[in-house]
Backbone:
């Protein structure tokens, strides 16, 4: 009995062990399956996370300022995350960012396509430099663009207009507001200082003097005339010569009328005296042809004005003979006789030098002795290197030389030949230079020391 029971119990233990083993294998398979499922889930999550990360790295709307450059980097938050592998459906280098615009395109990365948008926007207002403006009361208001300069904007055109306008009926200093607007509607309002002046001063006419001419001559009324004004930089000048009959000898009135922008008027009259052309008259063209031949012989093209002028006065002094009387019916006759016949009075010497200097392009004037007791005298005032100097080629008794480039002060002290005789009305002529140049002049050889 006892042995039989023991056997039964051993068989039960053996069956129990087999059952436990089967259970353990089942649990093992279940655990392995769970691990596999977890791995699959992790891989799926990783893949999803990767693509989500790429999607989040793409900037789906990029806005750039008009005129700025756009690059592929603008469409990614980070260039580390495989951004170099991305393909854009447009060539950004061909996008004109100077034009405000908006368009869509795609970015492809690992077979995933992401729609994006590019906006080129102009949000910056035009810039400029203000120009303070001065005008006269009751003058026409200038266009607004006259009050600004250096206008810049990436878009053109920029419109310029007034926001406010000053009261032009009275003088004042104020601020004018000028609006600049570009095609995108960006606005910049600038403040421009604006001064309205009540101009009551008339222009000044200078250089108007009486004219002597011959019947039939061509008159240049504007030669030597200047008009200035305290405010208007460009006053006008009209000349009324309607009373002149160029075919009839006589004395006529010619009126110069100057006007400024404010309407102020200045008037001055001169007398035009016409005489019948003398029978011995020499036409200027004939005179200048003779003078040019002489000038070509005594000067060279590479000489300075000072060197040319010295040669001219040296030639006149030693090639023209002084006589007490000559034909002075016209300045051309006097100059012609001095240059051709080689003789004349002081008037002839002065006019001969004047003609040669004019051919050389050297500005000069004729100075007349004033007042005089016994006889008149004439010499030249010559402009050299921007300064005026006195020159005289007329021979003087007991003085074997000539006067060249003396200042007013030097001329007043001059006593060549034992007397001066150079008194004149200083108010009629420009003031001379004040610095002496006599140490540079060799009168004998007619040369200038460098």
Residues:
């Amino acid at each position: 009995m006892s042995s039989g029971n023991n056997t039964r119990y051993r068989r039960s233990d053996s069956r129990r062990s087999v059952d436990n083993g089967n259970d353990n294998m089942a649990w093992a398979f279940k655990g392995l399956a769970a691990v596999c499922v977890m791995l699959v889930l992790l891989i799926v999550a990783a893949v999803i996370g990767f693509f989500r990360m790429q999607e989040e790295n793409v900037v789906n709307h990029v806005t750039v300022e008009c005129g700025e450059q756009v690059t592929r980097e603008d469409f990614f938050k980070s260039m580390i995350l495989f951004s170099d592998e991305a393909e854009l459906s447009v060539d950004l280098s061909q996008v004109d960012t100077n034009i405000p615009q908006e368009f869509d395109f795609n970015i492809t990365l690992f077979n995933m396509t992401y729609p994006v948008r590019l906006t080129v926007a102009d949000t910056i207002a035009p810039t400029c430099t203000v120009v303070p403006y001065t005008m006269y009361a009751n003058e026409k208001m200038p266009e607004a663009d006259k009050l600004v300069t250096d206008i810049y904007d990436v878009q053109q055109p920029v419109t310029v207009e007034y926001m406010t306008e000053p009261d032009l009926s009275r003088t004042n200093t104020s601020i004018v507001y000028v609006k600049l607007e570009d095609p995108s509607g960006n606005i910049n309002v600038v403040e421009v200082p604006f001064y309205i002046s009540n101009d009551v001063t008339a222009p000044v006419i200078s250089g108007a003097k009486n004219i002597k001419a011959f019947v039939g001559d061509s008159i240049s009324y504007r030669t030597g005339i200047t008009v200035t004004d305290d405010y208007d930089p460009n006053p006008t000048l009209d000349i009324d010569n309607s009373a002149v009959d160029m075919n009839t000898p006589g004395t006529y009135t010619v009126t110069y009328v100057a006007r400024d922008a404010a309407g102020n008027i200045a008037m001055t009259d001169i007398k035009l005296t016409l005489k019948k052309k003398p029978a011995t008259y020499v036409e200027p063209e004939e005179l200048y042809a003779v003078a040019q031949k002489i000038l070509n012989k005594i000067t060279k093209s590479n000489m300075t004005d000072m060197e040319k002028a010295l040669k001219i006065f040296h030639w006149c002094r030693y090639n023209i003979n002084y006589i007490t009387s000559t034909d002075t019916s016209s300045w051309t006759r006097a100059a012609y006789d001095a240059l051709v016949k080689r003789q004349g009075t002081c008037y002839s010497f002065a006019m001969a030098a004047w003609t040669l200097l004019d051919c050389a392009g050297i500005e000069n004037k004729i100075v007349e002795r004033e007042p005089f007791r016994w006889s008149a005298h004439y010499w030249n005032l010559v402009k050299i290197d921007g300064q005026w100097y006195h020159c005289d080629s007329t021979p003087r008794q007991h003085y074997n030389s000539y006067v060249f480039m003396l200042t007013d002060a030097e001329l007043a002290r001059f006593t060549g030949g034992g007397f001066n005789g150079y008194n004149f009305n200083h108010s009629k002529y420009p003031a001379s230079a004040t610095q002496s140049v006599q140490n540079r002049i060799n009168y004998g050889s007619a040369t200038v020391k460098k």
